[in-house]
Amino acid sequence: MSDELKKQSNFLFEPKLFSGKLQLGGDSLPIEFSAGIGQFGEIVFNFAEIEFNQNSFFISISMQDESSYFKEFILTGKSDDGTKFKTEHLYFNSIGHNSNRKLKLSAHCSEAFFFLKFPEPVTHPLIRLHLKGFQNFRQLKARCELGTVTMDGDGSIHNHNIITGYLSLVQKNESVDFSEWRTKAEKLLEHVRKVMSFATASSLQTPVIEYHNRDNLEVVVWSQTEQHQSFLRTFHHLHLQPIFEVAIESFFNPPVEVKNLHFTIEWFSMSATYNEVRLVAAMTALENLVSSNLDDTEIFIRPEKEFDKIRKELRKVIKKCLEKWSLEEKGKISNEIVPELNEKLIDLNRTTIFRKIKFLANQWGVPFDGISDVEIRAAKKARDLIIHRGYYYEEGNNYQDDLWKHVTIIREILVRFILTAIGYEGDYISYFGGAHQAKFFPKR
Predict the structure, then answer these.
(1) Stronger pLDDT, 68 or 32, i.e. the higher one
(2) β-bridge mates for residue 29, sequence order
(3) Percent of the chain with pLDDT over 70
(4) What dihedral angle (degrees, nearest 10) is formed by the CA atoms of 403, 407, 409, 413?
(5) Which residue of 40, 58, 220, 343 lies most exposed, with the fewest beta carbons within 10 A?
(6) What pLDDT sits at residue 5?
(7) Mean local confidence (pLDDT), 161-184
C-alpha cells in the first residue's frame, strides 16, 4: 500500500489500514483501504488503486445506472491489530482512472461501525456521545440511578461544525446486564442531549458514539447535518450545571407528563438566518407542544361527529349561495370551489392557538408575567402573514410592530413552557424586552 494512503491529519480517531471486501449485490472484490474518523465526525476513506478488469467492472458500471446515482455498497475489513470495520451504506462520489488503467475511488458513507478489542478489560460499562460545537466553562457532572453522567466541551469555539466535546454515562455496577443498561442509557443520554440543545439554542449533533463493555469497544459513526453556531442561547456557557442537572432529573421524574418535547426542541433550536423563519419555527414549535398535550375537548370546539353534521348543512347552504350568485359559472363553482370550501370548514371547529396556549399554560402552571394577550395575538397574526404571503413588512406601513418583537414574544412563551415541562427553577437568558438575565419559577 502506498505511503499516500497513510497520510492523514486532524482526526478524532486516527485512520487504520484494512484488508477487506467490497460488495454490490452478487458482485464482490478484495480491497485495501484506510478508514478513520475526521474532526467533523465523518468517516474519511482512502482506497488503494484497483486494477480495472472484469472483476472490478461492477464498480464502474454502477455509476452509469441512471435509476440510482448513489448505489450503496457494502464494505468490510479487518486491520492487523484485529479492528473490524463495516458499512452497508457506502457510496462513491467519484470513480476515476489513472494512466495505468487503475481505478481511483473517492467515497462517503452514511453509517459505519468499528469493532475493537482492548488489551485489558474496562472496569465499568461506558457510553460516550461525541458532540459538535458544544461550549462550556467547566466539566458538567451528575449522578443518577444509571451511573455518572458527564458532559464537557471547549471554552471557546472557532468552528461549530467540529467535534468539541462529549456526553457520557459510566455505570459503576460492573455486573450490570450491558444490553439492558445500554437501552436505558441511550434514552437518558438522548434526553439530556435534547435539553442541552434547548439550553444552547443549537441542535447538538452527535455523529460518533462509543460503547465500552469489558474488552469490547463499538464505535458507531453517523452522517449528520452541519452544526451551526448557537443563536439566542437560553443559558450562558458559564452557567450550564443547573440545567444539566435538571435535564437528568426530568428524565426520571418529569414534573408533568409531556408529549413530543424532543420534537418541540428540534424546532426551537433550528438554525435560521431571517426573523421571518425564526418566528415561523418558534410558533410551529409552540403549536406542536400545545396540540400534542391537550385532549380533543380542548383542541376542538364541538365533538368531531357532531361537527360533521354541521359541516354537511353548511356545505349545502354554501353551494346554494354560490349557485345563486354565480349562475354563469355554476359548473366551475360546483366542481372546484365547493370542495375547497368544504376543507376550509374543518378549521371552523378548531380552537384557536391563542386559547390552546392559555389552556395548557393553566394546566401546567406556566407564568405569563409581562406578556399581554394583545402581544400574543399580534405575534400570531405576524406569523400568519408570513405563511400566507411570504413576507411580513409592507412598504409604506409605518404602524407595523417590529418583527423582532414578535420573535422574542413567541420564543419567550416557548422557553417558559419548556422550563416548566422539565421542572427548572432559576436563572436563564430572556430576550423579551431586550437581552437580560431573568429568573423563572413556574406556578405550583
Answers:
(1) 32
(2) 22
(3) 90
(4) 160
(5) 343
(6) 40
(7) 90
- Please list the residues that pair with 129 across neighbouring strands: 167, 209
In the predicted structure, residue 280 carries a pLDDT above the cut 80: yes
For residue 65, name the pLDDT band (cuts at 50, 70, 90).
Answer: low
Domain closes at, from 252, 269, 288: 252
Same domain, 136 and 208: yes
Is residue 248 located within the same domain as residue 276? no
226 vs 7: which has the higher pLDDT = 226
Backbone angles phi, psi at 16, to 5 degrees: -120, 155
Q: Quote the number of domains for the chain.
A: 4
- Give the domain range for residue 386: 261-297+351-440
Based on the domain organization, do 277 and 239 belong to the same domain?
no
Task: For residues 353 and 272, give the distance between their C-alpha atoms in angstroms, rounded to a whole number.
Answer: 23
Find the length of the chain: 444
Whether 383 contacts 279, CB under 8 Å: yes
Q: Does 53 share its domain with 99?
A: yes
Residue 111 burial (C-beta neighbours within 10 Å; 0-12, 13-18, 19+): middle
In 98-234, beta strands by DSSP E = 102-109, 111-117, 126-132, 140-144, 147-152, 163-170, 208-213, 216-222
For residues 283 and 415, state if they share a domain. yes
Return d(Cα 76, Cα 12) in angstroms, integer: 21
SS3 assignment, position 58:
helix
Q: Of 298, 297, 300, 292, which Cα lies nearest the Cα of 418?
A: 292
pLDDT digit string, tens, across residues 23-62: 998 999 999 999 999 999 999 999 998 888 888 888 887 7
- Alpha helix positions (H), 214-367: 241-252, 261-268, 275-292, 296-299, 304-325, 330-332, 338-345, 353-364
What is the DSSP annotation of 256-300? S--SSHHHHHHHHT---SSHHHHHHHHHHHHHHHHHHTS-HHHHB
253, 252, 285, 288: which is closest to 270 by C-alpha?
285
Q: What is the pLDDT of residues 358-391, one digit of tens each?
A: 999 999 999 999 999 999 999 999 999 999 888 8
Whole-model pTM: value is 0.87
286 lies in the same domain as 384? yes
